[in-house]
Amino acid sequence: MKLKQLKGIWKDTAESYQQSFASDVAGWHYSRYRMGENVEEKAITNELQEFYPEICGLELNPFTVIIHVKDAGLLKIKYRSTGTQIGYTYRIIRR
CA 82 to CA 70: how far, in whole Å? Predict the structure, then answer.
């Protein structure tokens, strides 16, 4: 789903993440990954958590950042290429 489809705490979390330095760091790693560079999933996750502690995981195929949303569940943000820009697709996983 798109950002405009998110509501409440889910939208707040997505916007907070997008405004954090962690999203820039993840975007940089995504670009390197798309160019075929080997990236270390655990190292990237640790780096992202320094800037946004709610990040609880990363998947490389497809490149997805996983964020713990308080007691509500998980928000998965999938990175995708849209020409020269990076696009995002959101998926809510309720607990």
Answer: 30
CA distances from 11 to 5, 20, 29, 52, 92 (A): 8, 14, 24, 16, 10
pLDDT along the chain (95 residues), means of 10: 96 97 96 93 97 97 96 96 88 91
Residue with token string 């820039």 = 24
Check if the beta carbon of residue 90 is closer than 8 Å to that of residue 76: yes
Instruction: Please state the separation of Cα 89 from the chain's center in Å.
Output: 9
- And the tokens for 88? 């995002």
Torsion of Cα atoms, 49 then 79 then 21 then 52, to 10°: -30
How far is Cα 48 from Cα 57, in angstroms, rounded to an integer? 9
How far apart are alpha carbons 37 and 19 in whole angstroms? 26
**Amino acid type, 83:** G
